Amino acid sequence: MPHLVTLRVKRPGHRTIRLWIPVLLVVIVLSPILLLALIGGVIACLIFDMKVIPTYAGLWRVIAALPGSHFDYEQGRFGLLMTIR
Amino acid sequence: MNEQRKAILDMLAAGSITADEAERLLTAIEPGEAPASGSTERPKAKAKYLRFVVGYTENGEPGRVNIRVPIALLRAGVRLSALVPAQALEKANAEIAKSGVPFDLTQLKPDELEEFVNHLDEVIVEVDSPDAQVRIYSE
């Protein structure tokens, strides 16, 4: 599971923004909303005739495979970097 | 190597290790089957990531996109795509066809996609043009 998302935004004429986002902390803070989203997901699965457990297992596999992802975009003096660890 | 083998066999003969332990130790010191050609080249490590690097020039300013995607993420995505209901695929097919691309998503089998992901190790795509360079490779 990802534990840290690093974000860096570089804009011309502005200070570079660097953010280190601890995923676990965000999950804990947003847990009430996530719970509602999970329930909504179960209802959606039932409506669209999808298997609930395999769907959530598949989603979990996607989330668990995220560490190591890296996105870096630079255009002139603008830059955006996101890494998931 | 021979001395190590002899030491293990001596320990076995002396009764200080069991036959199973001796077998495990012998297996551990053996490098495996020697290659037929006698070359010392190591097998290529399995790729973990797929890298997309795009370099371009827009309005005279250089631009660069560098994306690294874990191959495990692609594999997880393929498995997840197997759960998409058929009616959703048909709707997606209809929308794709409207854009003029006759592509049938229902013909994409998860097993075949997984096979494709398994063989991404060998993928190298390089496109060079005066304004842009694209490179896709595994690492």
TrEMBL record, chain A:
Record's keyword terms, sorted: Membrane, Transmembrane, Transmembrane helix
Transmembrane segments: 20-48
Domain of life of the organism encoding this protein: Bacteria
Name under which the protein is recorded: Nitrate reductase NapE component
Automatic annotation (TrEMBL), chain B:
One of the Pfam families matching this protein, by short name: SHOCT-like_DUF2089-C
Alphabetical list of InterPro entries matching this protein: YvlB/LiaX_N
Boundaries of every YvlB/LiaX N-terminal domain copy: 3-33
Name of protein: YvlB/LiaX N-terminal domain-containing protein
Species the sequence originates in: Glycomyces lechevalierae
